[in-house]
Amino acid sequence: MKGILRATLATAIAFASMESMAAVDLLLHNGKVFTAEQGQPLQQAVAVDGGKIVKVGSDAEVLALREAGTQVIDLQGKVLMPGFIDTHSHAIFGGVKLKSADLETRMLPFDELEKRLRGWRDDGKARHGDILSVSGFPSTYWSEVAELEKRFNQGEWADTPIAFLGWDYHTGWANKAMLKRAGIDAERVKALKGEAVATIGHHADNTPNGFVADAGLSAVMSQLPPANLDQLIDAGKAARDLYHSLGVTALMDPAANAAPGDALFDFKPTAQTVGVLPAYKALADKGELQLRVAALMVANPRSKPADLAVLDQVRQQFAGVDNLSLPGIKIFADGVAEFPAQTASLLEPYKNSHKGGELLIDPAHFGELVSAADARGWLVHVHAIGDRAVRESLNGIEQARRDRQSGVVHSITHLQMVNPKEFARFKPLDVIASMQLYWASADEMSIDLLKPYISAMEFQYMYPARSLLKNGATISGASDWPVSTPDPWKAIGQAISRKGPKGVLNKDEGIDRQTMFYAYTRNAARTIGLEKQIGSLAPGKQADMIVLDRDVFSAPEEQLADTQVLKTYFGGREVYSRP
Question: Is residue 498 a contact partner of residue 565, using CB atoms and an 8 Å limit?
Fold first, then answer.
């Protein structure tokens, strides 16, 4: 009798299990499904239940799970992919920029610039308290500092603090009223030491000329009144909606404990320095975040291991928030390379200044900081643009690997110039190259503002994606929005062609489309510490998916940049449909 009962119970459980397997919310079929599972061929269909993938396979296999209440979508041969992941995006900063005065990297005649500023002053877009601020200035303006001084230090502008912010968020210009507000004067210039002299432009008598970079820019921008929580929430919504339209369903915010205007290059975080984290939490609490956000805490470059306890206090305040993870820290190793800033740290000095650029980290102790973070299970994400900064960043991570094999994945972002001696170090150290390959272009920035000032080798190995890949490095996709476009497809097209208005930036460093598809899916998920949850279409993973307007596997390479997203699904729910 007991045996019969056991058999009956087992049969009932089996049928219940089969029933739960069969009851799916959503089926998408008749498509070209790129799963991002390594080596897996294109599939035809996907089944989703409870926001997660339950089956990927042929039409017949997946359609067999259909029930009366299942939503069935015929993809009509279109490509379905995992939602894309941006491994370096200041999303809420970008949302703020969408609503503010922005030059969008256009070099306008000065009369037109002045006209725009008047318009933005009058409609309020440039107003931040009594300060006028405009972002998105191309670096070419910084070669015209004399004209900026002449125009914006007199007449109607004389008593109005004005701050112009460069497209790179590392450079800018401020008029005399703004410099006074920021406490930047000849005495402050005289007090600068070594490479830090480059952070405040000045005349022969040490009088500031208004140009500022990195720490100098931070001193200016810190004077802007902070955005309030409602403004940050609105910015978060704007960023979310834009990302959905581009097929991005997850991102890593590398400065989440900072707010727009904070002095990032001399950041001194406290337990109360929570930045944009409350905005992410507020959206999540309302069920409106609809993005996976991996939020990093910015640490001061000269932090000591004990300083991580303060950052952990911030992390604890936001633990357990839906779709928000806090996997580690971000550190600035240097600044930017383009003239006239030249604050990126190089192995060979800049030809004009004969200086190497400021290394923000201390090579003698940086490894201790990385190892301490690694011991906590935290990933470390390092901003390194110059080849010396890249080398010292790798040295720091190497110390952590010597101390233990934690399995925590660390990453270096930007990688504008990498010495060939470093190419083979990424794979054994398990360091991911988080690259903004939209910047790999022969344009004004690379040809006019950089090439004349750096060595031939440094120029040859700008954004060396192919060299890193050939040496086994893992590449992940990143935008650094709002520094540049958040559109992954524009970055993919650029990574392949490397074409710009002034030619091709070392065609040999171009990489193929398949590599870039993995860069924005599986590799990106690993970079942000969420490879078990997202990044590929596999049973058990969250159903973040995008449907595309073209066959990106057969379309000509030159057409990939124009790819449009038709639909975006987050957790199995449609969050975007192209009008």
Answer: no
Query: Within 13 Å, how many C-alpha atoms sit on residue 63's CB side?
Result: 10
The domain locations on the chain are: 2-83+545-549+559-577, 91-221, 231-538
Does CATH number 2.30.40.10 belong to domain 2-83+545-549+559-577? yes
Q: Tell me if residue 53 falls in helix, strand or coil.
A: strand
Same fold flag, 91-221 and 231-538: no
Residues 51-87 have pLDDT tens digits of 999 999 999 999 999 999 999 999 999 999 999 999 9
Q: Which two tokens stand for residue 315?
A: 């992390």
Can you tell me the distance from the alpha carbon of 363 to that of 393, in angstroms, rounded to the nearest whole number? Answer: 8
User: H helices within 23-90, ranges in order?
Assistant: 59-63
Tokens 């009509």 sit at which residue? 76
Give the amino acid at 12. A
Residue 228 token pair: 């309030």
- Residues 6 or more apart from 203 whose CB is under 8 A from it? 209
In this structure, what token pair is assigned to residue 207? Answer: 């009088």
- Given a contact cutoff of 8 angstroms between Cβ atoms, the answer to whether 388 and 345 are in contact is yes
Q: Which residues lie across from 128 on neighbouring strands?
A: 131
Which residues does residue 297 pair with via DSSP β-bridges, in sequence order? 329
Do 535 and 526 contact (CB within 8 A), yes or no?
Answer: yes
CA nearest to 152, candidates 143, 140, 161 = 161
User: Given the structure tokens 């489309």, which residue do they identify?
Assistant: 513
CA distances from 284 to 4, 188, 214, 338, 577 (A): 50, 44, 33, 39, 22
Please tell me the number of Cα atoms within 13 Å of 485 on its side-chain side: 13
CA atoms of 261 and 179, how far apart (whole Å) = 15
Please give the CATH number for the structural domain made up of 231-538: 3.20.20.140
pLDDT at 21 over 50: no
Region of 286 on the Ramachandran plot (φ > 0 left; ψ -120 to 50 alpha; else beta): alpha
The predicted-structure confidence for 494-541, as pLDDT tens digits, reads as follows 999 999 999 999 999 999 999 999 999 999 999 999 999 999 999 999
Sheet strands (E) in 370-444: 379-384, 410-414, 431-435
pLDDT at 23: 74
91-221: CATH architecture: Roll (3.10)
